[in-house]
Amino acid sequence: MVGGSVVEAALTILLDGLQFSSYLFIVSAGLTIIFGVMKILNVAHGSFYAWGAYTAAFFIGKFSDMGLPDAMGFLIIIAAAIIVGVILGFIIEQGILKYMYHRDEVLIVLATFGLFLVLEDIILIAFGTDPYFAYQPMALLDAVEMGGIVRDVYGLTLIGVAALVAVGCWWLLNKTKWGTLLKAVIFDREVGIAMGINVPLVYTLTFIGGAILGGLGGAYIAPTISVAPGLGTEVIVLSFAVVVVGGMGSIAGAAIGSLIIGILRAIAVHELPQVELFVVFAVMAVVLVFRPEGLFAPAKPRKI
Amino acid sequence: MNNKFIRGAVGFAAVSAITLSGGMAFAKDAISIAVPSFLTGGAAGPFGIPAMNGAKMVADAINAGKLPAPYNTKGFGGASATIIPLDEGGGATKQVAEYRNLVEKRNVDAVVGYISSGNCQALAPVAEELKQFTIFATCGTPRIFEEAARKYVFRTMGHATADNVAAAMYVKEKYPNLKGYTGINQNYAWGQDSWRDFDLTLKQIMPGSSPSDKTQFPKIFAGQYGSEISAMSLDKAELIHTSFWGGDLEAFIFQGNARGLFKKKIGVFTVGGTAAYRLGKKLPNGLVLGARGPYGILVRDRDTALNNWFVSTYKNLYGTYPSGPAYQYGQAILATKIAYDKAGSDATNEQLADALRGATFESFSTTIEMKLGNGHQAITENGYGITEYDAENGENVVKDVKFYPASCVLPPEGQNSVDWIKGGMKGAKC
Fold first, then answer.
1. Domain B161-299+381-422, what architecture?
2. Would you call A225 and B219 a contact, using CB atoms and an 8 Å cutoff?
3. Tens digit of pLDDT for each residue in B369-387?
4. CA of B280: how far to CAs of B195, B284, B314, in Å?
């Protein structure tokens, strides 16, 4: 390896891995939260991602055209995630899923898959087929030299955002009254109802929260990509893999799953690029052989 | 309305239908051409939409008799064509079903289009089975006519081997002291074939340079190339070859640019032409840019009546200069006219195929010679240039454009591309 010592190379792999892990964690956290609380495998999660990306890219472009400062881009990213999460999350949960909770889980998966297809088509109608570019926030943050190569600061901030999301989720679950209620519902929904917890409200808020995280993933990634139709599809596959590795419904699992996949993938890209395509699914297969429920599947109460 | 009138009308319609379907005794005054292209998905914006625009524009002009000479006769063998636009998305299985539907239920007269090599590869045998006159417009894989002889299927542009052999030749001319090169290509037929041809050619013509042992093959539509960019930055290779297209291409350019990748390394973009007009200032200077043949930005200033018509009409209609896919679909529609003009508007699929087989014709930007695959696969020149942002006019231009003749970048008839390159490209006339 030219231009760097072993330490530098290791630092590069670590940073690449962390950056990709952060992306994986942000998009999969929302999916796993929704599954943990509501037992819904939400295929429409990819749509939250896509809508977040489109909304952010659309307004970043518009604001830039209006001559407003590029730093506004960061506000737009957060606003886009919240707006998409609240509006789409609320409409989907209240308009469709609410009526399906007593149905078979497979039916609900099919319903969310249908929703995914519908939302993809609405994107085409609303935003057209031409890709949107929203590079301004990435361009604003410039680049630094680390480990002998140039890195873009925007990509590095992703690691911070993922850490914030992780800490925020941990705090919410373990340090607030809301978290205690959530954990009770996760553990046993019926007992939760019997104890007087407003489960429908918990469901609505959880779904919106998960949707905001999905939207945030898309909105934050938007400046680094060409925001084009179909971008939600790829995310579903990856985030499912992460969630399955980590244990469905476990936030810590999603974090660890993201880290394992992200870092192994970075090692593969640097040392053995031929196997890169295979890494995500190899990790998934190995984990499932030894722990069919994933690494950190939440304990299930035994019901008689 | 009285019953007699209705009965009369139904009777007339029935008689006409019988005459038309049974007899075909007189020349048709209308034909239908199905034009599949990506209307959804990441390939729609950079490829599918310009391609469809090009096809419609040329078909409309032909219907109105408004193409420049020698194509200024009205219609396709006199018949006016209706374009049936179709989404190419959804994968090869869906496309095969759609194709059967087009031919067997909707009875289209010709199918002209397709961007994805995967789709073309899957459809070629189906078209042969159904004996349907079909022109592939853009898809690149050489295998279609190298793996089997075709009777009804044509392709009116050169195949991917030309893109990558020409790229290697351009690299040799521009960077004769190149020591090492690497690549980032999508992990499927297109990316793998592109890298293989580029790598094999460089090994032949620049034996002093060597490929990196860490060439990157990310998944198609991955969108995130952070780790790959790091790995290539650390690689000692000075040059990066990529056949990325669509959203992947644009994401890679954004992410690489933000990290100064293209200041440190020479970037060779075989399909970069589609991004040239779209990215504006965000396209780095100094990239080696191809357009999969003499199309798009590489030929914008080519001063012929046909090209001037194509560029100015497209710009007027769609507000932007035509990129490669617009040219490629436009010339495939033109080839359809040529086949119909020769065979007549009531020609059978066999007659249409006979008319186009082995033909040579002037297209909008170049001469098309149907010389390979027993007269079914076109050969054309292929060219590259270097990107530069023209601040005065606020647009990207290419400089140092060089074209290589078809006989220089494509194997002679009867030879498989890989064998030809490995054998030292014998018979190449450059």
1. 3-Layer(aba) Sandwich (3.40)
2. no
3. 999 999 999 999 999 999 9
4. 27, 9, 19
